Amino acid sequence: MRIHNLYVDEHGETHFRDIEVEWVTEGPGGKMSAMIPATGIIFRATPGTYDYAWHPAPRRQYIINLDGAVKITVSDGETRVIGPGEVFLVEDTHGKGHISQAVDGKFRHSIFVPIA
Question: What CATH code would you report for 2-114?
Fold first, then answer.
């Protein structure tokens, strides 16, 4: 399982990389990763007009898209469209940040899971 990771380097530039989930157990219910400590859960509804200029993430957090998509542009110029069912880990809490935009004017539901 792939997770998009948005991170900041030592020069304040933001980049994407992919993280593969490591499976630590497997049983009749399928594979599972190790538990990742989280501090809460936030439900979000984002309108199809969403267009948020350069900003850093407010905290380290996983974002899980339930429906709709979001287009993210990082400071090195890479843009990714992260669709329904995809997960991304934002860690650019300082530096230049990123741009977030709705895709095709569609409403999006997502879940934010803040981590330590």
Answer: 2.60.120.10
